[in-house]
Amino acid sequence: AGWEALRNATFERQQAIGWIPETARLTAIDPTMTKWQDIPERQRAFQTRLMEVYAGFLEHTDTQHGKILDELDRQGLTNNTLIIYVFADNGASAEGLQGTVAELLAQNQLPSTVDQQIEVLEKDFGGLSALG
Question: What gap in Å lies between CA 70 and CA 24, rounded to an integer?
Answer without folding.
Answer: 31
